[in-house]
Amino acid sequence: MTAALSSTSTKRTLDLGPAVELVSKEEGHRQPLAPEFVSAEDFSPLEVAYDFGRVRREDIEAGPRNIWRYKKLLPVPSNVEEIPNTEPGCTRLVRADRLAKALGLKRVWVKDDTGNPTHSFKDRVVAVALAAAREFGFDTLACPSTGNLANAVAAAAARAGWQSVVLIPSSLERAKILTTAVYDGNLIAVDGNYDDVNRLATQLAAEHETWAFVNVNVRPYYSEGSKTLAFEVAEQLGWRLPEQIVVPIASGSQLTKVDKGFREFGKLGLVEETPYKVFGAQATGCSPVSTAFRNGHDVVQPVKPDTIARSLAIGNPADGPYVLDTVNRTGGAIEDVSDEEVVEGIRLLARTEGIFTETAGGVTVATAKKLIETGKLDPDAETVLLITGDGLKTLDAIEGQVGPKATVPPSVDAVRRALES
Amino acid sequence: MTAALSSTSTKRTLDLGPAVELVSKEEGHRQPLAPEFVSAEDFSPLEVAYDFGRVRREDIEAGPRNIWRYKKLLPVPSNVEEIPNTEPGCTRLVRADRLAKALGLKRVWVKDDTGNPTHSFKDRVVAVALAAAREFGFDTLACPSTGNLANAVAAAAARAGWQSVVLIPSSLERAKILTTAVYDGNLIAVDGNYDDVNRLATQLAAEHETWAFVNVNVRPYYSEGSKTLAFEVAEQLGWRLPEQIVVPIASGSQLTKVDKGFREFGKLGLVEETPYKVFGAQATGCSPVSTAFRNGHDVVQPVKPDTIARSLAIGNPADGPYVLDTVNRTGGAIEDVSDEEVVEGIRLLARTEGIFTETAGGVTVATAKKLIETGKLDPDAETVLLITGDGLKTLDAIEGQVGPKATVPPSVDAVRRALES
């Protein structure tokens, strides 16, 4: 029994804002809001259902400059912005004309989520998970992770004054260990690979009633945080939807939630319900969803990941089938790119727009390029690229690829010769 | 002769917004706006003077969510926000109650400038320098640097489609080389120390009429960008000034410009002219301004830097005397802290607020702690700490200081034992 389900007299009313119940994705079984993630009826993932009431642009515009401006569309308490949190979101949407020209596209926007508190979109989902977890009575924020999620969970817990338990494979690079350990939570290195760590997390979630594993037992709430990427893009475009959007695929959750966000904005009348296409991006070394799309399948065959895009390296993506649904429904496509193309994608974005993304962003840029070359992305349609993480965290990817133009003695002539060469 | 001073028929009218002339800091000699940085009359630094006219809160609030909302207070063209730029600024100001409690302060705000495009405040000053440099007819953005400035210049030039020339000591760490080289400008490694590189930059600035060295020939414009830190703090506090602010000191420019920003807001009636105190923070290993303050001097004796806070390691700070003026005028103080205290400052901010800062931020936090202990900072007064750079760039500082709590086999019992130990 979790703390949330406790029936003691101290139990207070659950306030998750507009969220009213959980619904199973396959057969639509409904159940009360709780820290659960799989339907006991049809064993499919549970998703949050809402009763939004009326939401107006003015209400959103008058809100804080972070994801809580959209709190009336998220499973979070009504006073969420008043409780200490990392205040993620409202990152830059930049018009990328130089990238557009290089790609042969008419108009491109880059949603640069490296501006978040720990420099990836994970701050969004973790903030929503923490807010919901607090309502359910948890007191510890936890996750298995190899990178961005570990940073986001440890930072969010520190800011909130919560305990954290972050599980990582003991073989993780020193830099990634440092950037999590600095927040002084309970960082536990596990002798094993990421699959071992993940399995351990599921066991621990079942045994510790006060631990909210953001991507396990509170996953339905956590994943809703990705909708804020869509909300921001639409608001930043001047309250309208783009025609095309390219989204990287790891578990696939983000892609489906971006679509959900656009649809919710449309249904609520916050934007006109203009058509848009959702495109998915994977690294060839971990491309189960792209492969399924190419073969016209509606299920996804798991793979063993082997790519430098480690933040996307989920071989058995939980939301794979729903990604295929979304992409097919909107008329988009999915492609995958080699590790060499990923690095070229990183470098292309850096040299054209001054934005240094991690490998996942390289996947997005390189996939956009491939989708244009194969005629799947319309070069005349307005396109948004989601850049969800920071290059500072994956320096290995460009090691040996970039460097100084020259090394010279300290003289004006030497610099001149170096520049002319 | 620089391009700016060319008298060909293609010369257009200079539009630097409200900027009207340059004034020498010592004797107030006035001269026309130009890419110059030292007065030929009294050899003191030149500063931008303005004719602001009327500036209203509503105009600012209706502006873009970046530093250009303050364009009517900066030496930039009237249409600056329409020209591709990195769009820095509007970073988080977070109420830091847990840090306040740890420090024994009543109310603390952290201005977290790690959210900028290349994760330091340098994006602000470089954006202003680039905007002014374009007006003067330059076509290449340049700087000598060992870190944050190199990143900011290379990224800003890439985004604008400009050439860049970034000079670094060849001994620089591989990570700092990569994070600049990725933007694909002209990164030149110079065999020599930072002083050699700096000298070379001054020589090159004199010889290349189309190169804008942001911190040399366009320095008066560049340095104005730091005012936006003050503008944002005041606006984010709800259009009022804080009572105390702690600012790290490298050249000292930022501290004097934060003060200038507060005064401009006050004079323009954008905020009430309430009293505030400006405090300066240095690392003991490079503390010439702190030493001068302690000894009651009004000049600053140069030192040879030896500290892990390398982004503050300027042994002969150009604005040192003006820092002393500002701190004395406002009733503040300056302190310095050991490298050990810097690391503890980094860790304190991370564990209380989930913000991972570079060594300069550690200097700010540790100095605030020391200023409280010595009774110079009023614990009951509202205090702002400027956190101007990102911990991801100075991982060496915490290497060996933080790490996993334990390394365990993949079992629930092992995790439990690790957490109980």
From TrEMBL, chains A, B:
Residues 88-389 form the Tryptophan synthase beta chain-like PALP domain. Its cofactor is pyridoxal 5'-phosphate. GO terms for molecular function: L-serine ammonia-lyase activity; threonine deaminase activity; threonine synthase activity. InterPro entries: Ser/Thr_Dehydratase, Thr_synthase-like, TrpB-like_PALP, TrpB-like_PALP_sf. This is Threonine synthase. Keywords: Lyase, Pyridoxal phosphate. It comes from Amycolatopsis acidiphila. PANTHER family: L-THREONINE DEHYDRATASE CATABOLIC TDCB, THREONINE DEHYDRATASE, MITOCHONDRIAL-RELATED. It holds the Pfam family PALP. Its EC number is 4.2.3.1. GO terms for biological process: isoleucine biosynthetic process; L-serine catabolic process; L-threonine catabolic process; threonine biosynthetic process. The modification N6-(pyridoxal phosphate)lysine is found at K122. It comes from the Bacteria. CDD domains: Thr-synth_1 (cd01563). SUPFAM superfamilies: Tryptophan synthase beta subunit-like PLP-dependent enzymes. It is an enzyme of class 4 (lyase). Belongs to the threonine synthase family.
